[in-house]
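Q: I have 397 residues here and want to know how they pack in 3D. Can you give me a structure?
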Amino acid sequence: MNLSTILVLICTATIGYSHKTPLPGPDNWDRLPEAQHKIILERETVSTVPSGTISGIIFAFHGCLQYVTQFGFASTACPTCHGTPEVMTLVYKAVQRGYAVVAVGAHRGGDKWRCYETHWPPEEHNEISGIIKVMKHIMTERKWWHLPRYAFGSSSGGCVALELALRFPLQGVASMLMGLHLNTLGEALQPRNPHNGHVWDHPPVIILRTLQDEDSVIERVNRTLIALHNQGALTQKIELQPYLLTPHFFAERMRGVDAEVSQKIFARLQDIDVINKDGLCIWKKCENCWDPLYEKMKSALWDLFPQWEDLYYDAAFKEMLWASEGVHETTSEYTDDIIDFFETRASTMPILAADHPALHAEHESVDATAFLGSPKQAQSHVSDVQRPNHHRRRTMG
């Protein structure tokens, strides 16, 4: 039986659920609560919490060359935030469905590419164990231990979400554009606490992949799906597909852009051949085309966004346009599919909370008594691990 046949047997169809959360558009961004920025144990966090009943927590992890502060808009509570359209639309949809979104960054911002450190076994390094400390700190502080918790990550962050499930109980995991490291796949993917030997079932996993990716990434995703299936985990995949752009597309996703400006953006991008006559972005993600097309686009839209770089519109358009091509870029297009997967596939999972202290104890300085109500505060004593410099293509964001 070849690899393709095995993958078809594991997951045979793209998910098709009934939920369709409306896009924010120019009039509804005020329905999104203000994001809260906080440094916890040498990691940046940005949290957006629904004003009403909370259905669960989605811990979010960004890709390389991205920032935690893309998960919130600038405000007094998050002055350094610069939310980008796809990420913020993802946050908006999740919050409208009742989920708190908590983005957790890499230790001290990560390496020079702003990537997370992911190694195996994770307890020999400070990334996964440090993230667990932060999660436990937040759940203790906010009294969230009774809530379902999920992990979502894109690219580098997707690998973090998958590794996190092997060391901390979650109700579900979503990885966009990434699988586990190949050396991790050589291990038995049994979630466990290495300090006390306790084990638990692997949570359901949904992986969103694109076939317009590097061969090495496609290989990692495919082998991860097979390994998780062999471990007995429930798995599902979604193939990222290109989608059409319309004259209203930018107003639907960009805060502060109305229908008139959106139509101008669309028309000008068609004039410079970034969008074709059918409404498809034809700006394939590659090393040699980005710079000249970016300068061309910047000139075409300059009068609409005079503070272009200060307001991060360069990153915003890169994110939206590349995502629409179905390539290696974070997209909000499948947010409802992810949450539907969490709710339908993970809803029967037990809530592994403070009444299961053995599953959480001894990972780090926030121990069982801390999350059961003790005033003890976590302190990080793990030294830095410097990731070796290496070449990463811009396509790996």
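Q: Anything worth noting?
A: Residues 3-240+330-381 form a domain with the Rossmann fold fold (CATH 3.40.50.1820). Confidence is low (pLDDT under 50) at residues 3-16, 362-397.
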